[in-house]
Structure formats: structure tokens, C-alpha cells
Amino acid sequence: MLVSALILGLLGSLHCVGMCGPIAFMLPVSRNQPVKQFFQITSYHLGRVLSYSIIGLLFGLLGKGFFLFGFQQQLSILVGIGMILFVLVPKIGSKLHQMHSPLQKVILRVKSALGKELKKQQNDTFFTLGFFNGLLPCGLVYMAVFGAIATGNAWKGSSYMALFGLGTIPLMTAVIYLKGIASTQLRKRVQNALPYVLVFMGILFVIRGLGLGIPYLSPATQVSILEAAPKGCH
After folding, report:
1. Please, which residues bridge with residue 214 across strands?
2. Of 79, 94, 129, 187, which residue is least crowded by CB atoms under 10 Å?
3. How far apart are CA 194 and CA 175, in angstroms?
4. What SS3 class is residue 224?
5. DSSP tag of 31
6. Cα–Cα distance, 71 to 89 (Å, whole number)
7. Considering its fold, how many domains does the chain have in total?
8. For residue 7, how many other CB atoms are within 10 A of its CB?
9. Containing domain of residue 154, as a range?
10. 69: how many CB neighbours lie within 10 A of its CB?
């Protein structure tokens, strides 16, 4: 299932361009020094991937709690259904965006920190910009977070989000180098295709949770750690 994170990042890149593109456009990269520019952009992406990895680690721990009590497969099914409903019932997406309001102060601080970093041109500026960029709310990131929870493991959750971040790198890098690469028509095509990708991934998560005994795709029913623990003597 980790591969699905990379696919989500790759196919959802144009959505990222729409959300984070303005920040990428404003990166104070050295236009006349290609080598320095390369390292600046790489540092920016490393910051984003680290941020996503930490988020994945935390939500992977949450998923581990479900796994310990034997709910990992049910959770996988719920995550899959959630992804499908996110596409089929647009109101769910709007509800997720309304969740920003309780965190508005935190989001404003992140945006303020981004604004301050954009004015700097120090060695750590690009890494910091990438890190804060990864903390901004985004519907596509929510989908990746659902996947991280379903892994039922902190490190797998972290890896899931890291692969998602890696998947967004090619197009985000191209946007920095070639600002006009993402035409309006191309964006519309990808945006139209993205719901189908999310539904497909949702179906994969549901199949995985059913425990059909299919290697890698749908492993047989897993036994929770609590159930697997040796029974005490009477």
C-alpha cells in the first residue's frame, strides 16, 4: 500500500501546484547560479518531506492503537470508504475545510513564519520554508493522512507520507524552473482525473481490509498483538 502514496503524490501534483505554487514561485532561488539553485530547491523539498514524515509518524501511531486492539482491517475499510465518500459527497470535503477554524491561530502563525522566511536568503531559509509549507492544510494531504493511519504503524505511516511528498517533487520542481509548465487546460484534466484516482485508492484500501488472502494486496486476517500475547497460567 506504500506505493499508493507515491501514486497519490505524483497524480495530485497539479493540485499541489495550485495550493503551494504561489510559495514555490516566490522562493528566493539564485537564478544565475544553477548549482546553488539546485541545492536550494532540494533543501526546500527536504523540508516538505520531513514535515510530511513527522505528520505520518504521529498519525501512524494513532493507527497503531487501532492495530493493537485488532481494528486495523476495519480501519482500512473505513479509510477506503472515507476516500470514496470524499469524492462522491462534496459536502464532506467542505466539512474538512471547516475544521480549519479551530486551528486558525496555528495556521496564521505558520503563514506568518512563511512570510518572514521568504524575506530571508540564509542557508536554512529554503529548508524552513519547505517545512512550514508541509504544515499548511490541504485536502490532498488529508487523503494521504488517512492512508498513514491505515498503515497501523508509526514508521510505515511516516514512510507513507514521505513517499507522498516525494511523489509531488517532480512537478513542483518543474514549476520552480518553468513557471508556465502547468497550463490551465492541463490542470483541469488532472483535476478531473484525481477523483477517479482517489476512488480507486479507496477501493484498494477496502479490499486490503477485507483480508481476502491475496499477497500484498489483501493479506489474510491479521491477529492483534493483544490476541497474540501468551495466555497467563491459571
Report:
1. 218
2. 94
3. 19
4. coil
5. T
6. 25
7. 1
8. 16
9. 2-225
10. 11
